[in-house]
Amino acid sequence: MKPVFILKNIITSLGLLVLLTPSQASAQIVPQPWVSVGEKDGEVTYAIGARALSLGVEIGSGADSSTGVDVLKFVNLPVISPYVGVGYYSEGKGIAFSGGVQGNATKNVFLGAGYHSIRGFNGQLGVKF
Length: 129
Hints:
The protein is of the alpha+beta class. Helices cover 17% and strands 55% of the residues. It has two helices and eight strands; from the N terminus they run H-H-E-E-E-E-E-E-E-E. The chain has an eight-stranded antiparallel barrel with strand order 1-2-3-4-5-6-7-8. The model has no long low-confidence stretch (mean pLDDT 86).
């Protein structure tokens, strides 16, 4: 065989290997749900959420029976994932802002802590599939 033909085969094979090898991002397509419990002005607040890739959605209830939806942006780091978010809440509460961090506790469980302008400080418990 000619060396040029062998070299082309090696380059093609390496290119296909790189394209077809699953990456960490493709493993993150499966949603990772969580529940959240917090406190604001002496009232208990609740939320549920899910994330896939580097985006998340959280539906929550705040003080005074306000309910709303937040859109979150995560920064995926090896151990922890900080996030920021913006949302809209009923009962005249309007625009909400949030931020926090989620981290791996075990292979299939993660914990988080954050602050939400309407729901206050909160703790999160989630699962990875």
